[in-house]
Amino acid sequence: MGIEEARLIEFFDAYAATLGAFDAEATAALWGLPGMIVTDDFAGALESRADMSAGLAASHQLYRVLGLASAVPEIRAVSALTDRISTVRVRWRYLDEEDIVIVVTDSEYLVRDDADGLHVYLAVGIDEAEALQRAAHERGIDLDVFG
Fold first, then answer.
1. Contact 78/11 with Cβ under 8 angstroms?
2. Domains in the chain, ordered, with CATH?
3. Nearest residue to 146 (alpha-carbon basis) of 22, 61, 55
4. Can you give the pLDDT at residue 13?
5. How confident is the prediction along the chain (147 residues), in pLDDT tens digits per residue?
6. Disulfide engineering: 68 pairs with which of 23, 63, 81, 100, CB 3.0-4.6 Å?
């Protein structure tokens, strides 16, 4: 029961490629609608691909300043909820051009196998905000300029 782990690995590798390319539209296409993002300090649902793409593009500004060149996902846990819905814990490593780790962060995703492929419907950012703050501090970057 559940989505095969090989498909999830392929999906998150594709997701990582869109992040590394700063391709917000391609990343948004990997989301189902509505898509919801939840962190300790934020909860929001995005109803359209355009809104999703705009939100992702805004985060790309920070990733660029931090020097992100690629993202490497590592699936840490999969829990099948139904035949077509799984939760997936992913550890992300954001690397710079020299493959030096900028940030290591964990997220939990709710992924559904739709007729046209896998899509994320919910992302819970476990520690990304703190990890990005640490990385910015280490690199002397003022996060206040990003709102």
1. no
2. 5-139 (3.10.450.50)
3. 61
4. 98
5. 789 999 999 999 999 999 999 999 999 999 999 999 998 888 999 999 999 999 888 888 888 988 999 999 999 999 999 999 999 999 999 999 999 999 999 999 999 999 999 999 999 999 888 888 888 888 888 877 665
6. 63
**Amino acid type, 104:** V
**Is-contact 74 57, C-beta < 8 A?**
no
Structure tokens of 74? 């590592």
Structure tokens that stand for 140 in this block:
């002397």
